[in-house]
Design a protein that fits this description.
This protein has 21 helices and seven strands. It is an alpha/beta fold. Strands 2-3-4-1-5 form a five-stranded parallel beta sheet, sandwiched between helices. Strands 6-7 form a two-stranded parallel ribbon. Helix 11 (211-229) crosses helix 12.
């Protein structure tokens, strides 16, 4: 049996297929999420509707619609669609498909090749696609959960447009679950199941933005509800049933009714409060419950820049190293790398000066985005620009004795604005001293400039 087959026609009423597969959107109008890509007038939607997608790479976490988008393209396009997995295919199979696609082109038939988990292909396998993408024998659509910058050959990547898919929001997953409960053709509608918004929100919260995972939990919960109620129609999916469906993850992770975000919040606030014991405990609660360690690693990196900042600049490097260690050695070995990072953060000197400063910058940027760059800070590569005053009055700091010019670098209406106010914690104490020294130098430069102007007058 060939690995390379066009998508078969699927009976929407086939109840042997998993709910997640039955509920897969068939059109862009059914698709939920990724509005930045497939919303009305957005570039990917326009390309699909025009049947002019070219070669694409879909990059995003599991359950965000990468395969679904490829299949929607398959149903809307006028090309032959071939789908296979990078886990199963080898170089021999790839070359055979490329040869078939080249022959098909001679007869006026275009071919779209969809490769799931394309990051699993090695360099030789990826290179096999390159000449056929260049010649236009195929349109390649690859799906990957890994950063294509690191996992896909640059030559191949340069010939594809990369679209980044985001994890679905909880309200979007709730919308999908509600659709599954009421859809009588493909979903669970004929069972007349009942589930409160709170129950569906709990499923969504623990799906981590993965629609497939949410559908799987709902399907298990539906079976449990019917068994407990002793009837095929009209059963209710309760909070307790959802806990049973989630099994260990929910029992450990939500033992006292806490939501997903409450535990990561507890870890973050324990670190902020310099409590290494509590930090380790909340970390352990999440890891032992089955939380994605890379999700925790991302949040730990956030803690390093939000709550530690320049009071201990090495914190960010250590957290990035912990992230890389988790990615490299996996779990459970990687749990100690995360433990080391959170204890280091908990014991490090704290400062939110950068966090506060950037928040103030964002507010000013929002109201002053149209402000012009001062003329003396602009480059003047042409005579016309020089004639208009570009670069006039710029002072090259390296040529000055104290290396600091009395020169305005903010727009006029923000002339004296100050954002970053370092604390006396850790390295920021030295940064504060350095800033004070720079301010003294600038004041001296201003005084010298004033004295020189008075002398000239």
């Amino acid at each position: 049996m060939s690995l390379f087959q066009t998508i078969p026609s699927r009976d929407p009423g086939d109840r042997t297929r998993p709910l997640a597969d039955r509920m897969r959107p068939r059109t862009l109008n059914e698709f939920v999420g990724q509005e930045q890509l497939v919303g009305s007038g957005k570039p990917l939607r326009t390309q699909i509707e025009r049947d002019d997608t070219g070669s694409l790479i879909f990059w995003g976490p599991p359950g965000t619609g990468k395969t679904t988008l490829a299949q929607i393209i398959a149903h809307m396009t006028k090309a032959e669609f071939i789908e296979f997995s990078a886990v199963l295919a080898g170089i021999k199979e790839i070359k055979q498909v490329m040869a078939d696609a080249e022959r098909a082109k001679q007869y006026g038939t275009r071919t779209i090749v969809f490769v799931d988990e394309i990051h699993r292909f090695n360099k030789a396998q990826q290179d096999a696609f390159l000449p056929h993408v260049e010649k236009g024998n195929i349109r390649l659509i690859g799906a990957t959960t890994e950063n294509p910058s690191f996992e896909i050959n640059s030559a191949l990547l340069s010939r594809c447009r990369v679209y980044v898919l985001q994890a679905l929001a909880e309200d979007q997953i709730v919308q999908l679950l509600q659709r599954a409960l009421t859809d009588e053709e493909r979903g669970l509608g004929t069972l007349k199941l009942r589930a409160s918004d709170e129950v569906l929100a709990k499923i969504a919260a623990y799906s981590s933005g993965d629609a497939r995972s949410a559908y799987n939990v709902l399907e298990v919960a539906a079976g449990l509800a019917r068994g407990i109620a002793g009837k095929e129609v009209g059963a209710e999916i309760t909070d307790e049933i959802v806990k049973d469906a989630l099994q260990k993850r929910i029992l450990l992770y939500d033992k006292n009714g806490e939501e997903h975000y409450n535990l990561i919040s507890a870890l973050h606030k324990s670190v902020r409060n310099s409590d290494p014991d509590a930090s380790l405990y909340w970390l352990g609660r999440m890891l032992e419950a089955g939380e994605d360690p890379l999700y925790i690693a991302r949040r730990v990196v956030r803690m390093a820049v939000e709550d530690i900042g320049l009071a201990e600049p090495n914190a960010l490097s250590l957290c990035m190293a912990a992230r890389d260690a988790v990615d490299f050695i996996g779990m459970p070995e990687g749990n100690l790398a995360l433990a080391q990072a959170v204890v280091y953060l908990a014991l490090a000197p704290k400062s939110n000066a950068l966090y506060t400063a950037y928040g103030a910058v964002q507010q000013d940027v929002e109201r002053t985005a149209a402000e012009s760059v001062p003329l003396h800070l602009r480059n003047a590569p042409t005579g016309l620009m020089k004639g208009l005053g570009y670069g006039k009055g710029y002072q090259y700091a390296h040529d000055l004795e104290n290396k600091t010019a009395d020169m305005q670098c903010l727009p006029d209406n923000l002339r004296d604005r100050s954002y970053y106010h370092p604390t006396n914690e850790g390295v920021e104490r030295r940064i504060r001293e350095r800033m004070d020294e720079i301010n003294r130098r600038r004041a001296q430069a201003s005084a010298d400039k004033s004295a020189e102007l008075k002398k000239e007058s």
